[in-house]
Amino acid sequence: MQHSQAPTPAQAGASWPATYTRVVLASRPAGLPQPDNFRVEQSAAPALDAGQVRVRNHYLSIDPYMVGRMYESRSYAASTGIGEIMPGETAGQVVESRHPGFAVGEYVVGPLGWQEQAVSDGQGLRRADTSRAPLQAYLGALGMTGVTAWYGMTQICRPEHGSTVVVSAAAGAVGGVAVQLAKARGCRVVGIAGGAAKCAYVTQVLGADACVDYKQEQSGQALGDALARCAPEGFDACFDNVNGWVLDAILPRMNLHGRIALCGMIARYGQAPNHLAAHGYLLISRLRAQGFIVWDHVDLWSQAVDELGALFDEGRLRYQETIAQGIEAAPGACIGLLSGRNTGKQLVRLIDDQ
Q1: 112 and 219 within one domain
Q2: How far apart are CA 353 and CA 341, in angstroms?
Q3: Of the listed ranges 30-34, 36-40, 75-79, the one predicted with least confidence
Q4: Domain hosting residue 70, numbered range
Q5: What's the pLDDT score for residue 338?
Q6: How far apart are the first and last CA of the chain?
Q7: 4 pLDDT higher than 50
Q8: Does a structural domain hold residue 354?
Q9: pLDDT band at 272, cuts 50/70/90?
Q10: Percent of the chain scoring above 70 in pLDDT
Q11: Of 295, 310, 334, which residue constitutes the final position of a domain?
Q12: Are the C-beta atoms of 38 and 86 separated by less than 8 Å?
């Protein structure tokens, strides 16, 4: 994939603003997040201590899990506190360093949150090779997003050549990589996405064999019937990013001893709890459904990146980005993610257009 030239590395001794902009959690949502649940504010930039680096963030990653952390309900990660910086991965450049392991000018990715600059002790920072791929790709297909798809597909779904796989939210950042990993293993892949344009992207760009537009189906039964028309032989594996009524439509179409990777629950965010009606098929079809969080499997990170990088170098890992401009746009980008406004990876660019 073609990409634009990387920005010129920061120069040692450069002067950086004494204040910067960040986004914090202002209040907990009552239902789906609203603009007033976020607050954009200015903060003083702290001086560096020994062993620290200052990173100028170029991109914010916007991901569904961030919404889950806005609530106080039990989850796999601690809730974001009121007044705390919205969490998330960023990609940026080291502009000041008192850390022996990081030099000024290096590009890094890490959990630095929704802010224009950040001070870090280096924990969790990963270098990004911008000669290989654009910086923001290390937040997407070559970063946490891609590794999430890799783990769920290769370690849980475990598709074999000739098997049939279904991927929900197939036009999203994780789902899109999952589709391509299954295709790389010789599988027949059916995607589920919202809208004709997204379905065309899933089939024509990502290479899925078929894609069902859930927005055209009026019920779970109708969605299930559409899936059955695309795969009358049933599904051997499912990569699920949605849960709720979409998973309900898939479960009766799973083959005996099928495997399901439970990656996301975007259908449930901000709404009253709902229950699966078709969960009986877990027993009837002797299915194996496993939830996973990518950070539990960092020991496999390098293996995942090796495969993803090889596919990228061969031109077999394609992706699309939806980019909002400016940190003030981050709350709207997050809200839009839940209604499916994005195709592929949702990012916020913090630097001026190159």
Answers
A1: no
A2: 22
A3: 75-79
A4: 19-140+320-349
A5: 85
A6: 18
A7: no
A8: no
A9: low
A10: 94
A11: 295
A12: yes
Residue 214 in domain: yes
Q: How many domains does the chain have?
A: 2
Q: Does the residue 6 lie in any domain?
A: no
Q: Are residues 288 and 154 in the same domain?
A: yes
Neighbour-count burial of 47, counting CB atoms closer than 10 A to its CB (0-12 exposed, 13-18 middle, 19+ buried): exposed
User: Which position has the token pair 């990387």?
Assistant: 6
The H-or-E segment that residue 114 falls in is none
Average pLDDT over residues 195-206: 97
- Strand 164-168 to strand 235-240: parallel, antiparallel, or no bridges (unpaired)? parallel
Domain with residue 192: its CATH number is 3.40.50.720
Residue 106 pLDDT level (bands cut at 50, 70, 90): very high
Residues 19-33 have pLDDT tens digits of 999 999 999 999 889
> What gap in Å lies between CA 95 and CA 342, rounded to an integer?
31
Q: What is the CATH number of the domain that holds 85?
A: 3.90.180.10
Rounded Cα distance between 63 and 52, Å, is 27
Distances (CA, A) of 176 to 65, 93, 198: 17, 27, 11
What is the distance, to the nearest Å, from the Cα of residue 302 to the centroid of all Cα atoms in its chain? 18
In whole angstroms, give the CA distance from residue 186 to residue 20. 48
Confidence band, pLDDT 50/70/90 cuts, at residue 5: very low
Structure token pair of residue 130? 């911008």
Cβ atoms of 211 and 183 within 8 Å: the answer is no
CB 203 within 8 A of CB 193: no
Q: Is 13 exposed, middle or buried (0-12, 13-18, 19+ CB in 10 A)?
A: exposed
Inside any domain, residue 168:
yes
- CB neighbourhood size of 349 (10 A): 19
Q: Are residues 207 and 265 in the same domain?
A: yes
At residue 21, the 3 state secondary structure works out as strand
The answer to whether residues 185 and 284 belong to one domain is yes
Residue type (1 letter), 173: A
